[in-house]
Design goal:
This protein is an alpha+beta fold and 268 residues long. The protein contains seven helices and 13 strands. Strands 1, 2, 3, 5, 6, 7, 10 and 11 form an eight-stranded mixed sheet that branches. A hairpin with a 5-residue loop joins β12 and β13.
Length: 268
């Protein structure tokens, strides 16, 4: 790693305070041009420790940047991951309070709820299926505690900025429908996503590494590098199959997953 322990802790503290104040900090990749993905995950881990110390509990994980479109936009070839906390969870139909987020956006995803642990570098697709309690339609709410672009140079956020910022994670809205993991071909489970009655995005589960289950496999393997494990009862967001939809005040979001179900939320 290129960052010192002090630099990692300072970055995490800045992100924690930015989240509390609903304000944004400058690009960490401008502050630390040689920052690596290992550095970024170290910042994320330090940020997570601050959240836990503040009374939050972990309820799951999110996988991001699983689609080719999003990877090419950031010039990377692998996904990233972040942590879901208890204060991020909304029921479908919920209204997000005004001022809760800075620049919220949403993505449509298939959520996996686990009934058994998953750990180690040898986790397979069959292991994921066996460990899954059910799958459900969901929305992920994204937010950024880091500027999307540097006002001086115009440089945009890089993958290390996003990872440090808990993979831009901010919230999750779970649909009511619960399905056995093999009840649908998840490659063909998709959604029509509307904002204020107008269709903004459509997509299929196959956009997530050609199979949303592969996202969970990837996460288990990544977590094994850091001595972590997926625990029973945790929610795993398998990755978005649409581009993010901006959610300014007054946005009403509805994701129609067809036979798979639906999920919605509004932003006051």
């Amino acid at each position: 790693m290129s960052l010192s322990e002090t630099e990692i802790e300072n970055a995490a503290n800045d992100l924690f305070l930015a989240d509390e104040a609903r304000a944004q900090i400058g690009l960490l990749t401008k502050r630390h041009p040689d920052m690596s993905m290992n550095d970024a995950y170290a910042v994320q881990a330090a940020l997570v420790r601050r959240k836990l110390d503040a009374g939050r509990t972990v309820i799951g994980w999110k996988i991001g940047l699983t689609s080719k479109a999003m990877q090419s936009a950031l010039n990377i070839d692998i996904p990233d991951s972040g942590v879901l906390f208890d204060d991020m969870l909304f029921d479908t139909g919920a209204t997000v309070p005004a001022g809760r987020y800075i620049q919220p956006r949403i993505e449509a995803e298939i959520a996996f709820v686990m009934k058994a642990p998953l750990a180690g570098p040898d986790v397979t697709r069959d292991d994921v299926i066996a460990a899954t309690d059910y799958v459900a339609p969901s929305l992920e709410i994204l937010d950024t505690r880091i500027l999307r672009a540097d006002p001086e140079t115009g440089a945009t956020r890089k993958i290390c900025d996003t990872i440090s910022d808990n993979a831009a994670n901010a919230g999750i809205v779970l649909g009511n429908e619960k399905h056995a993991v093999d009840a649908f071909d998840l490659r063909w489970a998709g959604a029509i996503v509307s904002r204020n009655g107008e269709v903004e995005e459509t997509g299929l589960g196959a956009g997530v590494l050609n199979d949303p289950v592969k996202g969970i496999v990837w996460l288990a393997h990544r977590m094994a590098l850091y001595g972590q494990a997926i625990e029973p009862g945790q929610i795993i967001l398998s990755g978005s199959f649409i581009r993010p939809v901006e959610c300014p005040q007054g946005s009403e979001i509805h994701a129609d997953f067809g036979p798979f179900g639906s999920v919605s939320c509004a932003f006051a």
